[in-house]
Amino acid sequence: MGSINYDDSDVLDVLIIGAGISGINAAYRLHDELPDKKYLILENREQLGGTWDLFKYPGIRSDSDLHTFGYAFKEWTGADIAEGKEILTYLKKVAADNGIEERIRYKTRVNSADWSTEERCWFVSTEQDGQQKQYRSRFLYTCTGYYDYDAALKADIPGIQNFKGKVVHPQFWDLKEDDYRGKRVAVIGSGATAITLIPSMAEVTKDITLVQRSPTYILSLEKYDPIAKVLRAVLPQKMAAFVIRQKNIARIYASYHIFRTFPGVAKKILGRLTSMQLPKDIPLDPHFKPNYNPWDQRLCICPDGDFYKTLREGKAHIATGHIDQVTNNEIILKNGERIPCDIIVTATGLKLHVGGKIATSVDKKLIKASERFVWKGCMIEGLPNYALSIGYTNASWTLGSDCTAQYVVRMIKHMDKYHKSMVVPEPSNRDQLEEGPLLDLTSTYVKKAEKDLPKAATTGPWRMRTNYWYDLVQAKYGGYDELVFQ
């Protein structure tokens, strides 16, 4: 399709905030299904890619398989678990091939957005290259991810200020390989980032130790899916991509529901799989025996068992217990164990934030998203012509963000057909809604952020989204219950 040229001062049909994986997804759906609509993407950073451009730590990769983390409209042909640079290359190609790159305005920080009911328009104030600039748009679509780009989650580590070596958080990685070559490194944390860092850094460090307060479930997956190889060999490319994607979605949900329904069985299976990969000198308990059920927190994935391989080769070690004190050159646990180190990596989680720190108001009245319910996982109660891109906690993020994109496109078509200029979610029985979490995980970083996130209910269109297939049908064919069109 050819590109549409227009001045930035025009009133836009859709203004997308964020040029990460969700923003590019949203732009593609608009470009493909509503080619006559005028849209722009505002991106605070100097490049597209979001997470995959921001994070620079060793081994950065997706913890979801790329056949589901990638786009439905652009098949993924690489490894199931891919590195960040490969994902970034993929995103850039999608943007270039579909004319999306020319619609992005980089180095543009969005400070505020005010909806005018009288003018049926969003007035969005930004700072662009140090200059103030305002955009006007009929629809505002935030694709800013789920965490704070400017600040990491602060972890309470006793005595960390006493440490004389380097302390670095993965979100703000500033080390080169030579900076940790031959050094003793301690990685504090037990999530996906820590499990990724250990095998990547262990190749050059003198010693590297995972220091965890409590363990997590770590599941090995083959980097290259053998079934996917067979399907590509016998099916046409697009059909193979579709079948592989659906197979992987089915695998995700089968394991999720079986593990949640039979947690005792799940623990035994995961424990057995882990024991088979551990060296004899590292026991399952306490290092790999979590005190929570599988899927209360996300399972960590390690491709081809690289994390366990590093332990078996003696290149890495593990220490489990609460930190008593950090001295000038070591970490001391409350059980008396000491971990000498020259560098400490605080892989303790992200600071969650939804909506991109944009002061959002309706007719000059400030709206606090944390006091509002989310409609079908994609719109916020009381905010007109506004969409929010949120993914899944029990599956790939992109699956959820694409459901939102398809809902937005269909909603705009519906409004055009019936000559409506405003749509706003309004619960008919708000006082009867039972509040629930927006993200169904017990991880520390999620629990710390719950009070600041929008709310989900337990029933109706306000409940948390959990199933891609159901949500996709809703996005394509579902009703508009509890939406008010004007």
From TrEMBL:
<dbReference type="InterPro" id="IPR020946">
    <property type="entry name" value="Flavin_mOase-like"/>
</dbReference>
<dbReference type="Pfam" id="PF13450">
    <property type="entry name" value="NAD_binding_8"/>
</dbReference>
<dbReference type="GO" id="GO:0050660">
    <property type="term" value="F:flavin adenine dinucleotide binding"/>
</dbReference>
<dbReference type="GO" id="GO:0004499">
    <property type="term" value="F:N,N-dimethylaniline monooxygenase activity"/>
</dbReference>
<protein>
    <submittedName>
        <fullName>Dimethylaniline monooxygenase</fullName>
    </submittedName>
</protein>
<dbReference type="GO" id="GO:0050661">
    <property type="term" value="F:NADP binding"/>
</dbReference>
<dbReference type="InterPro" id="IPR036188">
    <property type="entry name" value="FAD/NAD-bd_sf"/>
</dbReference>
<dbReference type="Pfam" id="PF00743">
    <property type="entry name" value="FMO-like"/>
</dbReference>
<keyword id="KW-0274">FAD</keyword>
<keyword id="KW-0503">Monooxygenase</keyword>
<keyword id="KW-0521">NADP</keyword>
<dbReference type="InterPro" id="IPR051820">
    <property type="entry name" value="FAD-binding_MO"/>
</dbReference>
<keyword id="KW-0285">Flavoprotein</keyword>
<keyword id="KW-0560">Oxidoreductase</keyword>
